[in-house]
Amino acid sequence: MSEPFVQARPEGWTNPLRDPRDKRLPRIAGPCGLVIFGVTGDLARKKLMPAVYDLANRGLLPPGFGLTGFARRDWENEDFGKVVYDAVRENARTPFRQAVWDRLAEGIRFVQGSFDDDEAFDRLCDTVHELDAERGTNGNHAFYLSIPPGAFPVVCKQLARSGLAGQDHPGQWRRVVIEKPFGHDLASAQELNAIVNDVFPEESVFRIDHYLGKETVQNILALRFANQLFEPIWNANYVDHVQITMAEDIGLGGRAGYYDGIGAARDVIQNHLLQLLALTAMEEPVSFSPGELRTEKIKVLSSAKLVQPLDETTARGQYTAGWQGNEWVVGLKEEEGYNPESRTETFAAITVEVDTRRWAGVPFYLRTGKRLGRRVTEIAVVFKRAPHLPFDETMTEELGQNALVIRVQPDEGVTMRFGSKVPGSTMEVRDVTMDFGYGLAFTEDSPEAYERLILDVLLGEPSLFPVNAEVERSWRILDPVLERWAESGVPEPYAAGSWGPKGADAMMARTGRTWRRP
Ligand code: BG6
Predict the structure, then answer these.
(1) Could you give the count of Cα atoms lying within 13 Å of 461 in the half-sphere of its Cβ?
(2) How far away, in angstroms, is 512 Cα from ligand 1 center?
């Protein structure tokens, strides 16, 4: 097996085999370092550190890359190196190669301290400068805040105070990466954005919505704008409704600290599902430049309205004990760390309409839940019935509505559902499906969302990161639902392993529709 290209390169070196105009070649990050706050957390161990290694393994990081961890633990560089090593061995996507690891390990540093400790941030500043001198990171650094949002203000202030937030010399860059939740409602999001923007200009802020890093999510744009087939029917004249589902089979054991009091709507609808809605409903951008893309997404989020009355067009639930496959699992209230009186919803569904000429009157149903029948994320565009069916009624009993289903995960691809003649002497018509599967059509494995997003941060490529206006508009859509839920009732119970509460079915039934069973 050939070694990826990770040898040190002389200054000013360019790869003669790479034509910078050839957009098919992945761009390699220039000299830089990444500082991760929250290295002892799950996200860092399962996603961030493995993604850094995978990027190095693919030859997409600079040879002198620096990876610094900041945490309270009493660790030396070597201890943190061991933590990264274990995370890589356990969770990396690409094969382990000793030479790649050795090169990466040379750039690993650890700074011990708490967020309110000025001296610790001064030490971090020294470490970053040492990396510049020893590894050639050239003053270019990204700070990844994989920490509770309550700690964002203090860390941002510390980065500003210690001089880490600003460049030492013109041409260098400093960027901050923040993980959701971006606030818990519009007001808190605005407050948070103000604090972050006070220290980092908006173009240096990279908000992670990891769904945007998924290949299948980016494929929504390819499917819509690279083809002639779909565009003419992608509107209210032909589309009956759209269902966007993000279902998970896992429960919430071990996540009480983050999840209790947050719930499914804030955790998933506010970010992932509204972004999927924006990509599905947006107009063709003038180009795929970050600004043009964002303009179109913001237009959708600005014209999206909740369908009223909320008591009938939304649903929420909380899982109770039940059979998840072959396993008997407990309900949320019995999970470790949860308030036994918890009113946190683990299932949420809302109905949104996009008030534009293209979409007027087409409901977009968004649902998400934990401990549902299976793990699946999909966008189903369901078309109106043909205006006339020249068949005997009994011959079309098994003919549903045409649908185009974008399968985001796990079985990535696209399904088209349409009616077809059943073989035989009668003209019976029944639904069939036609499938495109990534696994079959392409030999390349899809990179993990975090690989793509971390690389984009280091490249300064902001297309896949929501800006403050998108975050705020998403809260503006969701806030009335959260307020209504806070003032009325409690989430409806649903058994683990089922497809959610009865209220979710009732919400569809009132317009004569049903949820797909993905
Ligand atoms: C996160 C949510 O953003 O996405 C989690 O906070 C959820 O609750 C996760 O489990 C799901 O991500 P994926 O990529 O596995 O669908």
Answers:
(1) 16
(2) 31
